[in-house]
Design brief:
149 residues
Amino acid sequence: MKQARNCWPALVKKANDGVTQVQTDLAAAVERVAQLHASHQRLCRLYDEYRLKEQQPQNEFQGMQASMNQRQFMAQLLNLQQRVVLDISRAETLVASLRKKRVLAEIELQKMRALEEQDLLAVRRDQQQHEQRQMDELGVRQFNLRMQT
């Protein structure tokens, strides 16, 4: 008589662990994208504040050094904005990649569950056939015993 294979529950667990890991990675990547967007917005606000300060007429005389420092700081802010935009792009690419990976992991999990189910059905079918054969043999024996007496 056929018995259920012990490998399927382990493979289902492994596939389920894979889905869980990818979902955890995806959540972390989405959180990273949100943090980068927040950083980009802060940098944009800060740049806009300094740009407005530069455009406002100054009551006091602003020295040449202070003016150069402010412009240099604004250039650094623009450089940081560009780096954050690049990081956002990379992080969004990672999120898209992880979403695809999650779909594939979920497909793998469904496949393992289906294979486990098929194995269990095959075991049940074999068990039913075995029981049916036993019943048939018992019936034939009873019939033969009746015929002999």
